[in-house]
Amino acid sequence: MKCSQGETFSKGELQRFGNIELSPSAGILNYGQGLFEGLKAYRKHDGNILLFRPEENATRLREGAVRMCMPAPTVEQFVEAVKATVLANERWIPPPGKGSLYIRPLLMGSGAVLGLAPAPEYTFLIYVSPVGNYFKEGLAPINLVVETEMHRATPGGTGGVKTIGNYAAVLQAQSAAKAKGFSDVLYLDSTHKKYLEEVSSCNVFVVKGNVISTPAIKGTILPGITRKSILDVAVNQGFQVEERLVTVDDLLDADEVFCTGTAVVISPVGSITYLDSRVTYGNDGVGRVSQQLYSALTSLQMGLAEDKMGWIVELK
Ligand code: PMP
């Protein structure tokens, strides 16, 4: 789908996957004017195909588009385009329990612009790929390192929207952490350097007794759809949930730590390294709460549990 600045997107079309043509001075290539989303389609046992809360991705894209000075498809256009793309690629959706089809919507300033300004023309496209587990560990615990020098977001910046530049900003810290054997990096706030923000591509939760806490959304953390869903699932399961400032001390003192995201679903954290200390959780096993929430969420997403919240969109 294409549209000019100040106009609305018209209906798109399906195209075979392949390279796209862009001007060397396209807004996305020079000034990072790009936003993306990530969703998954699961195959159910009866052959149906399920999407999880796609209208939430549409809304987040639209909110991000305001920050990035871009026009965006309507919620209906977004959801229809996702459905059409998934149905056209049905043969790539793994069988039940064997993975999912990852869906990547991308909105970009595709028009040519030389001086710094919003691009004159925009392209919205969607591509898909079958995927298994995000971390090679699967539901086995991941090992995180707290980053004390580099930040992925600063107050007033773009950390709260899913813009491409946020991901470029994490590559150095993430690569260094992986080279040392860690699974990923946990970022701190850039002002006090003591409040947790999130991991490179997922939100973080700490569990203490019956209380599950996660950093409050305040412009520097991506408002994850899995995060929002897990807060509701946890309440339904009788946990007390808190969105607040979560400190490094809370983290090191937690019974369990886990991360949430479309790609990672729920990843239990087995250890945290902070400066010179390393804390392990749950005897290197998968914590009880992480396991319970993982089961609740994935059985919903795969169509094995009743969808009482109305979160599932069936495609057939
Ligand atoms: N934080 C960041 C930086 C992310 O890239 C993602 C993945 N979209 C998340 C959190 C989790 O968001 P969601 O649950 O919507 O996938």
TrEMBL record:
Keyword annotations: Amino-acid biosynthesis, Aminotransferase, Branched-chain amino acid biosynthesis, Pyridoxal phosphate, Transferase
Q: Which residues does the record list as N6-(pyridoxal phosphate)lysine (modified residue)?
A: K162
Top-level EC class as recorded in UniProt: transferase
Look up the record and give one Gene Ontology term from the biological process aspect. amino acid biosynthetic process
Cofactor annotation: pyridoxal 5'-phosphate
Question: Which transformation does this protein catalyse, written as a reaction?
Answer: L-valine + 2-oxoglutarate = 3-methyl-2-oxobutanoate + L-glutamate; L-isoleucine + 2-oxoglutarate = (S)-3-methyl-2-oxopentanoate + L-glutamate; L-leucine + 2-oxoglutarate = 4-methyl-2-oxopentanoate + L-glutamate
A molecular function GO annotation? branched-chain-amino-acid transaminase activity
Task: Write out the GO cellular component annotations.
Answer: chloroplast
For the keyword Cell membrane, the answer is: no
Is Membrane a UniProt keyword of this protein?
A: no
Q: What is its EC number?
A: 2.6.1.42
What is stated as this protein's family in its record? Belongs to the class-IV pyridoxal-phosphate-dependent aminotransferase family.
UniProt-recorded name of the protein: Branched-chain-amino-acid aminotransferase
